[in-house]
Write the structure tokens for this entry.
Amino acid sequence: AFAADDVAWPESPVTIIVPFNNGGDSDFNARVLTTYLEEELGQTFVIENIAGSGGSIGTQEAADAEPDGYTLLSNHNSIQISYASEISEVNMDDFEIVGMYAQNPGDVIAVSAESGITNLDELVAASQEKKMTVATNIGATTQVESFMLGEYANVTQVDVGAVSDKIVALLGGQVDIIIGPYGNIQPYVESGDMNILAVCTPERAPGYPDVPTCVEQGYDIVWQTSFFMGFPKGTDQAIVDKFAEALKKIVTTNEDYAADIMEAYYEYPTWMDAEEALEAFAEAEETINRYTLTSLG
């Protein structure tokens, strides 16, 4: 095998498939990296959004792509959720994993300000009086959080799509509860349209320390979405290594990149190489299986 630096790659533009619409953190995370990847590797990186079925359509397309180093996937735990839910037959094993490059510091649970609900106790009490709807994206990460919430509150999941669709649904009164990134929801708190009740992190998120956790309100709802990149199975390891080296350099040393993701989504650069990332994803899979499969079965 060649040393990573010796491989003549990339010699033409590289496509990164994001299996969600633009406008959410999945799209943003990959898109912001392309600028820095172009600086590191001297070639154009193009984002292709292929949305649908909680990310499984685009993920399948990436898995089926030619393993020549010119198509890769940027996704998160939705790949495991779609697999556990039997929406998709594709799993982490179908890719040469590059590494984990970001973690969502924690989705928040929000309701319409008109509801008057300001914390999880009030939400649970209101749901006992009248069953509530929670917007989800079947096969995506909010499905797990919705199942967790459903252990306490009387809720029905409604599949409305990505976070931008969830916001529209809550503003329009089609759903009672949404779960999503703080960066997307905070503007609607400022405008007086929504109340954020809790964040699904083990401890309070450093980017928004005024939001209490579910745990401190007495609810065991903890979930953090992890983002990874991977090439189709069979891609030359030298290419995978070269890309991993460039990605690691950006995530661990580039202060502009760190500032970009903090400003947009209150995220912190997180790097794990392939081996560490796979261990972390295996732990997440246990949680996913516990909630998704028991709830489906």
